[in-house]
Amino acid sequence: MSNVIEVKNLTKSYKEIKALNDLSFEVTEGEILGLLGPNGSGKSTTINCILSLLKYDEGSITVFGKDMKPDSYDIKAKLGVVFQDVAVFDELTVYENIDYFCGLYIKDKATRKKYVEEAIDLVSLSEFKKFYPKKLSGGLLRRLNIACGIAHKPKLIFLDEPTVAVDPQSRNSILEGIMKLRDMGATIVYTTHYMEEVEMICDRVIIIDKGHVLASGTTDELKRLAKIDEKIIVEANSFDSKYIEEIKSFKAVHSADYKERVLTVSYKEGADNLVKIIEYLKKNHIKYSRVYSERPTLNDVFLELTGKELRD
Amino acid sequence: MTVFKTFLRILNKNKMIIMLYTGILLGFGALNSRTTSQDMNFSDTKPALAIINDDKDGELAKDLVRYLDEHGELTEYDLDLSDSDDSKVVDDALFYRQIHYLVYIPKDFTARFMAGDDVKLTTKSTGDFKAELSKMLVERYMKTANTYKNLDVTDAGELVEKIDKNIDITADATITSKLDTEALELAGVYFNFESYSILACLIYVICIVMSVFNTKKIKDRTNISSMDFKKHNTILLLCNCMYSVVAWAFYFAFGYVLFGKTIISTHGMLFAFNSFLFTICAATIAFFIGSIVSNKDAIGGIVNVVSLGSSFLCGAFVPATWLPDGVLAIAHALPTYYYINANDRIKQMETFDMTSLKPVFIDMGIVMAFALAFVIMTNVVSAKKRRA
Amino acid sequence: MFVHNFKYSLKALFRNKTLIFWTLMFPIILGTFFKMAFSNVTSSEAFKAINFAVVEDDNFKNDEVFVTVIKELSDEDGDNRIFDTTYVENEDEAKELLVDGKIDGYLVMPDKKDDTPGVTFINNGINQTIIKNVVEEIALNEKIGNEIGETIVKDEMAKGNFNIDIDGIYEKVMEKMSDETNLLDKSANKLDYSMIEFYTLIAMTCIYGGMLSIASINNSLANISQKGKRVSVAPTRKLVTVLSSLLASYVIQLVGLALLFVYTIFALNIDYGDNIAKVILLGAVGSLAGLAMGLFVGTVFKAGENAKTGILIAITMFFCNFAGMFGITMKYITDTKMPWLTKINPVGLITDGLYALYYYNTTDRFSADIINLIILTLVLTAVSFFSIRRRRYDSI
């Protein structure tokens, strides 16, 4: 599997702030790569640099094995982009919009017509072909936005936070559509700050913060970085601090926190942690409303790596 | 307070373009007041004309030249009209209004005239008033010459003698005004021009600011907030007026730089006060337009139609006396008309008593009434829009 | 790609109703205003009688010539009316009328017959100059007439005829008084003040087409619109995008120009002379320059949408001013003292070309203006193109 994108030591500063700080990563063919990071971490900046829209100070970017420049038309022909903000003509209908943007890549009319129809089907906008963007709801607009970006069947697709402010139904269909695209042979770079989506569709994840790669790997690999194996949540109205200290001293426990009526106990390892804690609670007659077990999330990974939460 | 602060922030964000606009419009005002009046100023009674004399020895020709030189501002050209280059020099001079009238005295004019030939003086004219004055001068001379010839005078010298006895008659003109008419005229042009520039500037700037407040999302938020929309409107209006006053102050300061003492005279102060009131009215007009127009693409066209159009129709560029009655009737429906009318009165004011000031105050009052009307209209429109 | 982008640029522009309306309609609206404002200026027949007063003292009453002539000139039903005359008993009354603004000036006849009549004004203007000239003319003719009359009487008396037939003498005097002026007018076509404004209006319309090209190019610029980002990422050459958008704007602009011509010629009865084909050519080339100007402002200035529109409007007004729209004198000053400004001022070039057609016999000046416009267009387009080619931004 060759590398579709290779980013090496990418650095970009805005005045004194380093937006990108020695950023390096690769994207392999046929994968869905997630770029995960909080707001302001440099995700969009990275994408815009790869697309040759933004200047950068140091580093190199190759796409499909060649240097990426503003006039790399052969590379551009194989790219598809869906930006965060909706980018469509208010004066053109749904069909005309998709046709226009597809036409920037596909010259042959017959092929283009076919592709446009397929794109409309992919995002389920067939009923709205003749509608103007002003008449579409937020979710439908996003679908249009996506259709405009992928109608020409690109080999490499960038999606920059495509599900922000989208209703759950549309979001699911968008995520499914993206997986369909991958199955049809495209490589996808997907940026987001929603870890649930990343866990759902990404083959590999890169966590970035302050313009630098913190960690990369599959979801499971990353979760192992969290240094915790399991989390047990106890919801109780009150919890005596002496018990918290005791729990903290358990062998397998990494940390225990009681905040806002929820006790979170993180375990480094162990198989029967849930049983053991329930027994402990019973023994000490501690009242609780709920107890459940959780696998660590990417947020935990991020927290471990940076001390911050992903979503602020 | 928040509305005010936001307004200031929007202004600040757009400050480059606002300054550019204000600067250009003020600049025009200054430039135009310096240049326009040259063509419209009739305070010289001596018209500018030119002569080409190919009959240099002829007595009649010589006398005609003398007469024109005395009663006009005569330039004598040594050119050959049959030569196309020389002819172009004359045409250009006429075109650029360096001369308004040209008289060409052909060879042997005197001799042929005395002999009774139908010899003609070729003339070229710009056709404007100054040219007409020159033409009258020449006609007067020639009519007199022909009259005396009809009396069977055969000698050129004798003819000239007879002509000269009477031709230099001038009426004894007394001008009672002690005003520095030229300075006041220029100041009048400057302030009249302001009707265009202030209106254009305010409409443009205020529309930019209002378009921000009127973006759907912000408007919706404002509508559901607890602030009474009338109060909101009032604050916005006051903000706009505040900006307008600043613009007015610049214009006034510029005027001081240009006209110095004329501005701080009573005339100047009256001009300034009049323009201040008009500026407020312009602010209300701009505010009204800003509340009904939200499309940025329309702003370019609207700015020009409203400001240029009203200024033209009300006599800012073409003196009101030259406007046809139909146009003046329409002009009466525009506040600009009353502003310019007041300016013209101020320009000619000799004394500052109640009789001369009253009509000016009435005009000013009408301008303020317009302002009030626009404020009311704005509130009505925005109330309607809220319910829509 | 070119046709594809052209087709859609045209569609998008055309459906932007507000932009189209204002860009096409406002010259028509303004033209109507101009026509209304200027319809009187050129017709010298539209003449309001001048308010005038005469001190009807003995000095006046005894001067028959003045009495008769002024009566004739004040006659409401007469052909020669120029005065609306009020007769007052003394100078104080006349002064009052003058101060009240009811008259433009008054006449006082001198005590001694040979002295010149006196006219009094507050300040000097057209009407006052006319009054002065008329009074002088009457006085002159009176003197000459008297002289001729005296001569005739002397002759008659010398012949021994002592019966002085006053009417007869009067007739003889009138015969001798000549109206002949020996003037032959060879003026070139006179340029009305209003025509100048219309020419500036045509020029302004051409330049305002720049709004269309700014709107068009904004769609292709990554830092202005999201669509621009898409276009920048696509494998289309910038030159193709720019030129096809420009062409789309040009088509619409030409439609607008055609509308303006049709309207001004048929509805407003403006006469463009015999050179209508050349005028249209000038308009077409001028529009191109206007579009190039819009393109230039849209690409070279790194500012937001609003700011760029504002800059274009400001630049347009700047150029209109120096082309003479607010006062023809500005054009003269520019041409004589700053000719380089006219060379780069598209509004000035267009208006100048229009004058040249109307005023001069040769087409040299006209051709020079056309060539200048074409050069301006090419330079502006080239600069715009090079500034967006291979452009990467610092931030978007």
For the structure shown, list the relevant keywords.
heterotrimer, A: 312 residues, alpha/beta, Rossmann fold, Alpha-Beta Plaits, 2 domains, 6-stranded mixed beta sheet, 4-stranded antiparallel beta sheet, 11 helices, 14 strands, elongated, B: 388 residues, abc type-2 transporter like fold, 4-stranded mixed beta sheet, 16 helices
Describe what this molecule looks like in 3D.
The complex is a heterotrimer of chains A (312), B (388) and C (396). With 312 residues, chain A is an alpha/beta fold. Helix content of chain A is 34%, strand content 28%. By secondary structure, chain B is an alpha/beta fold. Chain B has 16 helices and five strands. Chain B has helices at residues 2-13, 15-40, 59-71, 84-95, 109-114, 129-150, 156-167, 181-213, 216-224, 229-259, 261-264, 266-292, 296-314, 325-331, 335-348, 354-387; strands at residues 48-53, 73-76, 101-105, 121-125, 172-175. In chain B, β1, α3 (59-71) and β2 form a beta-alpha-beta unit. Chain C folds into two domains: 2-41 and 192-390, no CATH class; 50-189, D-Maltodextrin-Binding Protein, domain 2 (3-Layer(aba) Sandwich), CATH 3.40.190. Classes of the chains: A alpha/beta (312), B alpha/beta (388), C mainly alpha (396). At the B-C interface, α2, α4, β4, α6 and β5 of B face α2, β4, α6, β5 and α13 of C. β4 of chain B pairs parallel with β5 (183-185) of chain C, so a sheet runs across the interface.
